[in-house]
Amino acid sequence: MHRETMAQFVYNTLAPLYPDIRPALYFTNPFQLLVATVLSAQCTDERVNQVTPALFERFPSPELMAKADKVEVESLIYSTGFYHDKARALLDLSRSILRDYGGHVPDTMEELTRLRGVGRKTASVILSACYNKPALIVDTHVSRICLRLGFTTTRDPDKVEAALALLYQENQWITIGHCLNQHGRRVCTARKPQCTACPLSSNCPKVGIEVISRAISDCSGQVR
């Protein structure tokens, strides 16, 4: 199957299975989603959702976050990991939003990625969820699936994003990013992909799957 044909097969198959494209992170405005997404680096969404209610009660806006005591912010976000760096990023990006954007979270990739702690993935989350702008959210799950499907030969997120941008129309970007993420979490997992339960299996080249299966088998044999 040609790559372009495979891409549309993937879209048409997964889109009905994962219709809810809302972020799993709790938020009520762009600033809160920006904060939550920064905190989600190297942390689960579930953990972030446990932390943000208390954080947003104290600092619900960039105005208040910009004036926050760093030690207090660190204590509130401690369990998300890398709390020193994340607290520094939250204070700095809040000040930048006030100084450079009139207190409003910007709505372009270029402006968002100028903020401390904000890369293309975080910016894409904001653009798609808050401003309904075409954006491809590429995380570890998306990169893994794209490699297995043969869409890319690398897991580099920038290269994966570029490959997906060529395979899909802009009006499909938000949906395909969400679908690949959810499918990677639920079915096409890193260690034990559930190929027999996967609706893509009949056309999937399964790049690298045999290597994973062999490694797991070898480990099981050593345990015995």
UniProtKB/TrEMBL annotation:
[4Fe-4S] cluster binds at residues 188, 195, 198, 204. Keywords: 4Fe-4S, DNA damage, DNA repair, DNA-binding, Endonuclease, Glycosidase, Hydrolase, Iron, Iron-sulfur, Lyase, Metal-binding, Nuclease. Its cofactor is [4Fe-4S] cluster. Residues 39-186 form the HhH-GPD domain. Gene3D superfamilies: Helix-hairpin-Helix base-excision DNA repair enzymes (C-terminal), Hypothetical protein, domain 2. It catalyses: 2'-deoxyribonucleotide-(2'-deoxyribose 5'-phosphate)-2'-deoxyribonucleotide-DNA = a 3'-end 2'-deoxyribonucleotide-(2,3-dehydro-2,3-deoxyribose 5'-phosphate)-DNA + a 5'-end 5'-phospho-2'-deoxyribonucleoside-DNA + H(+). Binds 1 [4Fe-4S] cluster. GO terms for biological process: base-excision repair, AP site formation. GO terms for molecular function: 4 iron, 4 sulfur cluster binding; class I DNA-(apurinic or apyrimidinic site) endonuclease activity; DNA binding; DNA N-glycosylase activity; metal ion binding. SUPFAM superfamilies: DNA-glycosylase (SSF48150). Its EC number is 4.2.99.18. It comes from the Bacteria. DNA repair enzyme that has both DNA N-glycosylase activity and AP-lyase activity. The DNA N-glycosylase activity releases various damaged pyrimidines from DNA by cleaving the N-glycosidic bond, leaving an AP (apurinic/apyrimidinic) site. The AP-lyase activity cleaves the phosphodiester bond 3' to the AP site by a beta-elimination, leaving a 3'-terminal unsaturated sugar and a product with a terminal 5'-phosphate. Belongs to the Nth/MutY family. This is Endonuclease III. The gene is nth.
